[in-house]
Amino acid sequence: MSSAEFDSTSGHAGQVRFFNPGPVWVRPQVLQALGGPMMSHRSAAFSDLYGRILEKLPKVFRTKGQAHTLATSATGVWEAGLVSCATGPVLACCNGAFSDKWGEMSQRLGLDTTILKAEWGKPILADDVKKALAEKKYQIVTVVHNETSVGTISDLAAIAKVVHENSDALLFADVVTSLAATRVEADEWGIDLGVCGSQKALALPPGIAVFSVSEKALAAARQKKFRGIYLDLLDVEAFGKKNQNPTTPSLPLLYALDVQLDHILAEGMENRWARHHAMLSAVEEWAPKAGFRFLPGEGAHSPSVSSLFPPEGVGAEELNKAMKSAGWVPGAGYGKFKSSNIRIGHMGDVDLASVKNVLAAYEEQAARILAAAPAAAKA
Ligand SMILES: Cc1ncc(COP(=O)(O)O)c(C=O)c1O
Which residue, judged by its Cα, is nearest atom 16 of ligand 1? Predict the structure, then answer.
């Protein structure tokens, strides 16, 4: 099936008005699936459900190895990776709010952590990672593929290559807003832990995390004596073999995940990536004409969330307020760009026609604000 034929919105094409960069708009069919019957998570019926999920999930991560779920948000899997596997120094690549937080988590866990910093809005460069690896031996490298806070994507394939060519380190990659939005290749690139939440490009409600984990990462965990309980990746692996979770899972979200994985695989990974890149292209084409400017430089624009400065004379917060009054759910800037940027989440099951509609609405509201501004401000 071509991407043009597939209606990712399941009948709501052109009607989506929800552009928060996570939680994102969720199809009604997925919301319906949340209402499945309760059952014991040690029953055969549960194992049937979970077995289906464990069979489909690796296809999204592009691994012939393992992928699992945990009833945490994505942050829980960051922590699971570190508490289960970390026995040596960590290189944390930081270029925005989420990667900064992962680096801080590593420090707060008492790990020997080096922060490799890039300015917010700039990608992590493979060359900088290579230089850092030449200076010290690291056991783990953490990197956020797509920094949602600043709408900035880094070249994860290139980073993975330098990590594996220049060290034995495990590569822990946050693919929270890149998985199912752009190419992520867990096996080909050698991602040892691929961390994702549910409420982003997978287009599910929040409350569950999914992740891929390599044999190399599990081997590192086997060397570690104290791994806790809730976030122990070896327990997750052991129960996964029985098509179960170690603790009570979020049954409603697993029903929804089962349905949504069918939808994603029916669309096809390449088609889904192409649709996200088409939505980004629409923003890229529109922005300069409408007087909006991307925060990241060319080549680092995220396929799932655009972080933009509004036109001169239009305040980002004022613009978002106007968008809300007009019935849209816009995304606000994040962290240090909270008051100067808008973010448009174009991910998950949102379609190109809806994105074009929201862009027209931003342009209209910006023009209204400018028209209402006092003459002195316009001069
Ligand atoms: C790239 C990235 N990583 C991690 C997180 C944290 O996810 P959660 O709050 O679901 O734990 C987010 C949330 O927006 C994110 O965008």
Answer: 148
Is any ligand 1 atom within 6 A of the Cβ of residue 144? yes
Q: Roughly what angle, to the nearest 10 degrees, separates helices 233-240 and 215-222? A: 120
Q: List, for residues 239-256, the tens digit of each pLDDT value.
A: 999 999 999 999 999 999
The residue count of the chain comes to 379
Take residue 222 and report the two structure tokens written for it: 């086997």
Q: Cβ distance 223 to 209 under 8 Å?
A: no
CB atoms near residue 224 (< 10 Å): 15
Q: What is the DSSP letter of 337?
A: G
CATH of domain 36-266: 3.40.640.10
pTM surpassing 0.85? Answer: yes
Q: Which CATH architecture has domain 268-370?
A: Alpha-Beta Complex (3.90)
Mutate to test the pocket of ligand 1, among 98, 156, 172 (most ligand atoms within 8 A of CB): 98
Q: Is the CB of 103 under 6 A from ligand 1?
A: no
Measure the CA angle with vertex 321, ends 378 and 370; round to 5°: 15
